[in-house]
Write a structure and sequence with these properties.
182 residues; alpha+beta; tt1808, chain A; six-stranded mixed β-sheet; globular
Length: 182
């Protein structure tokens, strides 16, 4: 019996699936490492936290960045994931923010901690995204990753912040977010 192979999609092919109506705007599918991945439905805790974080980060912008909520970013020719929140450069070029445009990327994990802290985090580090927060709603902790090492797919700086911590993006230390207050 011949080996089973899989087909890896490029971003251009992924966009054609959307353009042809095979994938719709409401389909919770992302492209990572050439694979189409069906994302879990968004739970109420996840949605509420993303909404509250969005309000805080939009209120703190002061013309310094834009906020994207569950919109695509382009990591490379084979990855176009949908992170929960992204702070990115106002003057960026291209259809979607690229790693060099991103100040902070946030994933909120209610049922996806393994995926977010494994496959996705590895892809973010490989592409050079400077700072990633993974907020674990179940464990009530935030995993903060900074200083990517693209060759290894890891972050040089990684620490766990308790729920009671005040969180600040490295690019905007004046912004302080207390998750326990939300």
């Amino acid at each position: 019996m011949p080996a089973i192979t899989t087909y890896h999609f490029s971003v251009a092919e992924f966009e054609k699936l959307h353009g042809a109506g095979i994938l719709g705007e409401d389909d919770r599918v992302e492209l990572l490492n050439g694979e189409l991945l069906v994302m879990a439905p968004i739970g109420s805790g996840h949605r509420n936290l993303v909404d509250l974080l969005t309000e805080i980060l939009v209120d703190q912008r002061q013309g310094r960045y834009r906020v994207a909520v569950q919109n695509p970013i382009r990591l490379d020719d084979y990855s176009e994931p949908l992170p929960d929140l992204v702070l990115y450069r106002i003057d960026r070029q291209g259809p979607h923010p690229a790693p060099a445009d991103i100040f902070l990327l946030i994933e909120v994990a209610e049922s996806s901690i393994e995926y977010d802290s494994g496959t996705k985090l590895y892809a973010y580090a490989r592409s050079g995204i400077g700072e990633v927060w993974i907020i674990d709603l179940v464990a009530r902790k935030t995993y903060i990753h900074r200083s990517p090492e693209p060759a290894s797919g890891a972050y040089a700086v990684a620490h766990v912040a308790p729920w009671t911590s005040l969180l600040s993006p490295a690019a905007f230390p004046d912004i302080q977010i207390g998750l326990s207050r939300l």
